[in-house]
Amino acid sequence: MFKLRPILKTYYDALEEGKVLGMKCQECGDVVWRPLPTCQKCGSTDLEWFDMGDEATIDEIIFENTNLKGDYTFAKANQNFVNKEPYCICVGHFEGGNLFHAALYGVNEDNVDEKISMLPITAKVEFIQMDGGFKSVGFRIKD
Amino acid sequence: MEQKLARSVSIIGTSTLPQRYFDDPMYEGLSIYELWACACHQAMEDAGVKPRDIDKIVYSQMANYVTAGNVLAMVGTLEEWIGLAGKPIIHIEQACASGYIAFMEACNAVASGKCDIVLVAGIETPKHFNSRNQPAHMIRPIAEYEEWWSPGRALFDTTYYRFDGVSDNLLTDEQARLYMKNYGVSEETIDDTYNAMAVNLRRNASRNPRAAERREFAEIAKENGFDDVMEYMRSEEHNRKITRFIRKRGSVLHNVAAGAIVVCSSDIAKKFSQKPIEVIDFASSSNTQRFPYCFHQMNVDVRDALYKDDIDPNELDLMITTVMTSGEQLDSAEVFGYLPEGKGYQYELDGRTCFDGDKPINPHGGDLSFGHAFGASGINMLSEAILQMRGEAGDCQVQKDVRKCLVRGMGGGHTTVGIILETKE
Ligand SMILES: [Zn+2]
User: Fold this and answer.
1) Residue A49's beta-bridge partner residues?
2) Contact at CB, B35 and A4, closer than 8 angstroms
3) Where are the domains of chain A?
4) N or C, where is chain B less crowded by C-beta within 10 Å?
5) Crossing angle of helices B374-390/B98-111, nearest 10°?
6) What is the pLDDT of residues A103-133, one digit of tens each?
7) Does A8 touch chain B (CB under 8 A)?
8) Gene3D superfamilies under this entry (chain A) (predicted)?
9) ipTM of this predicted structure
């Protein structure tokens, strides 16, 4: 039986407490982040909250040339982010979890080649304050 | 009755998620996504199928852009919430007819042979929205929406086609004018008929835990010092007129809802369900401008398209119909031959359309008391028909076997649908 319970609210409330939650399938063990109430691997609805920890592996860094006028991933500062520090986009995964796209801080034109050559690398969870009064999850490369 | 589809289609599963408001304790902290997932899984569990068995999803929602963070196409996200990522999905938006049209498209997908098992599901939150770039559980009352938004007026180009001011309520008023003109019924009798209909529907809803409003008007009347419920219903203070003929209690209730149904090819239906329901046929008609009486005209069009060969309305055990305002139920019941022409009002006055009457209409409570969630409503209405046909409707179960059922729906004042279902066992 599907359990009617808050998924989004529980997730966002936990972010306020500095915790990143995913969900773990109780049948096949698959972990999904961001949380979803249905297992993406086996279709089970028997999932429980799972603490994703505070760091993830970054597998790819997507860092576009500043001369490109298209959908810029370099120095992007989302209008809804309170902090306007530039970030780029990454593909990563929490340990044992699925691949995701996220904002990545700490990469710039001077160090991008070096960071890409070091992939995969670990990055710390970075809580991004949104101007709508909630937090989102990004990552920051360790120096 | 014989199925009119190239390949027979059966219903094998339905959701039973109730009609509620977001302030109901049961829905605290939820968003439309949790409700969507719940309804879809309920239907899949009821059908005994797993997400991997579903070949396609047909999803209905009308106001997603307004109510769901200005998102135009939530299809991928919705699939992920129910474990169906990677499957084909189509979004149907045809106002409050969306759910019915989605159901027809799901049946067509099976009838064509392209799919064996299809999930049809809808979601809608008419009274709340979340703003752009905010998580969906951070809901606000629709009145706070930045742009003036009234569903009745968002349905048409009101500059060229239908001038602003001809609301849906006014159009349903036309059904009363037509009725008085054709059958010489007085305005007082129309008022009593509409009030009796509201009382009947609430009586049905009071026995249906899935309905949004479940307190009988007789009880509410007593509480307000009225021994006669009809006196209460006639009182301007407690039940004011919102148009010439329509009173507050004779107008649709809006609430958040999700719903889902699983259809499959009839030759495999028995593998999944003890009580599969066959989809005999369906038809629809759209019409915005054929004044006067366009609601009535769409009913006539759908009836003429649907009733052919061996379909005899006298054989129908049950009619379920959209009732945005009172006139719609009376007009529809007569046009589709469920109640005798020009005499249907007497059935309402005598309570014969109640769940325990001989001509039940909307035993679940109808849009006036069961509730109504735009694009999800058609699916919810079909689900109530399914429960009645299986004998699983609970306390609002009609007092006879429901073998043949007409589900008639309308949305936006521009689309009307008729669907005939039958149990063969
Ligand atoms: Zn699993």
Assistant:
1) A23
2) yes
3) 7-52, 55-141
4) C
5) 60
6) 999 999 899 999 999 999 999 999 999 999 9
7) yes
8) 6.10.30.10
9) 0.95
